[in-house]
Structure formats: structure tokens, C-alpha cells
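re: ur question from yesterday

yeah so i grabbed the chain u mentioned. its 239 aa long if i counted rite. heres the sequnce exactly as i have it in my notes:
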Amino acid sequence: MSNPERKPPRANPSLCPGAAEPKEPDLNDFTSLGLSAPILAALEQAGYTTPTPIQSQAIPPLLQGRDLVGIAQTGTGKTAAFALPILHRLAAEPKRAARHGCRVLVLSPTRELATQISESFRVYGAQLNLTVATVFGGVGHRPQIQALRGGVDVLVATPGRLLDHMATGQANVANAEILVLDEADQMLDLGFLKPIRQIIGRLPKARQTLLFSATMPEQIARLAKDFLRNPERVSVAPV
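ran it thru and got these C-alpha cells back, copy pasting raw so excuse formatting
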């Protein structure tokens, strides 16, 4: 599992007195993006060597706490683009999630994508003591309720099933620090716009919000305008 780009030779920064000016960080190298050592070790173990364009463009502002709108399709490496800085922040600011709550909420249109995102968080955070839960429809409620009972660091969910758990008090997003809307245009196509707005209405206003979409129809653009604060904008083509 490695990004489909060859790693270019890495230039050594000049250490000579009187050098004209410091060189810019090499954003074609994960070690230069500012991620913590345990995350870098997990990436190396998983076979990742070179960031994709969306990763090199999105990770620095996300580490700074900026909101972000990303126009990116499947195959661009966007899951790592948001998962890596999120894991870095969680590890740097350790705290216990509230009971039935989460520190990070990732909304996804389908159970398949939600499962893939959760697995990515587990792979990238393999050396961190963080918990990940996945919530989607079409399966029984009880295992999901048990997973949420003590609170989790990262909750990846489809909107409909999450609202079900919120309605019964089994899920509480009132203390979430980060919200990710992944494949927002797919969620719009599946009729999730109203549920998304209901869920966001229960989140704290002081949060970091990330929105990723392959396209930017008017309703998604309005959603971004309503709920993101001065977001960084990144647009990339599939690798």
C-alpha cells in the first residue's frame, strides 16, 4: 500500500554560515509535513513514502487548525489528508472523550466508505492509544451502542444511523472538536442534506470543519458557506 508516486531525491538544507536563505520544507516527504514520530512510523510500516498532492497541500493548514474545503475524488489520497493531521492533534492533546460522545466526527455517505475510513484511522494511528468506532445502517444497533457507551476518539458514521443513536441518547456529538464531511456531493445525492444540517446543529460552534467533495453543487457550496470559517481551499485531480 504505497502512494503511486516515485520519491524524488531529497535536497539537504544548507548548514553553511552565510547561506543566502533557508530552503522551503520538502513537502514531497512525509517527514517534512510536521507529523509526529508515531504517525510517521505507522506510515512507513504501511508502505507510504511520498504524499499525494492533496496530502501535501491539505496537511499543513489542517495542522494549524484551519477549516478546509477540498475538491477531490476517490483515488487522490484524501482520507490520509484529513486522518493524519487529525490523529496528530488527538495525540498532542490527549483527553478522554465524553460518555456516548466523540472527539472527532466523520460523516460518510455509505457503510462501505465509512468502514474504509475507520480502517485507515486504525492503520495510521496504530502506534497511538486512540479509539475508533463505526456506525452505519443495515446492521444491529447493539454492538454500535456498546462501542459508543464509553466515548470514542474518532466516530465514523452515516448520517441516518447516527441520528437514530442520537435520538435515543446513545450518541452525543455536543463535545466534538472536529467535523469531517466526506463525499459531500454523494451525501447530497442520497438525500442526506437535511440530516447533515440536523447533526451539525448539535455540534459545538467552536470546532474545526473539513468538507470534501468531488464536485461543488450549489447546495454543497451553501453548506460550506454556512458552517465553515474562512476555509483553506484545495483542489486536486485523481492520481
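noticed a couple things. DSSP finds nine helices and seven strands in the chain. also The mean pLDDT is 89.
anyway ttyl
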